[in-house]
Amino acid sequence: KAEAVYAILPHRPEREVVLNDIEARGSVRVALLGSEAPLQVTHDENRLTVRVPESLPYSQAYVLKLEGVV
């Protein structure tokens, strides 16, 4: 079973979320919990950038599940 790191976003993300100090261990998988929408992810050195869909439903918080990172 893959271990996961969770990023909790207290506000609706605009176009993208940038997470610093994220180290990849091979392929990185990112999912927005509660959404089936695919996310575009780029990893550059220790920075992970996640593009989020424009049509996110309202939520009090948003959670990204990150797999393959440290």
Overview of the molecule:
The two termini are 15 Å apart. 0% of the residues lie in helices and 54% in strands. The chain is globular. The strands form 2 sheets. It has a 3-stranded antiparallel β-sheet with strand order 1-6-3, with no helix packed on it. It has a 3-stranded antiparallel β-sheet with strand order 2-5-4, with no helix packed on it. The model has no long low-confidence stretch (mean pLDDT 90). The chain is mainly beta and 70 residues long.
Distinctive features:
single chain; 70 residues; mainly beta; three-stranded antiparallel beta sheet
Short description:
The chain is mostly beta strands and about 70 residues long. It contains no helices and six strands.
With strands numbered from the N-terminus, the spatial order across the biggest sheet is: 1-6-3
Order of helices and strands: EEEEEE
Helix tally equals: 0
Shape: globular
Distance between the termini: 15 Å
Oligomeric assembly: single chain
Fraction of helical residues: under 10%
Which radius of gyration do the C-alpha atoms yield? Answer: 12 Å
Structural class: mainly beta
Number of strands: 6
Low-confidence stretches: none
% residues in beta strands: over 45%
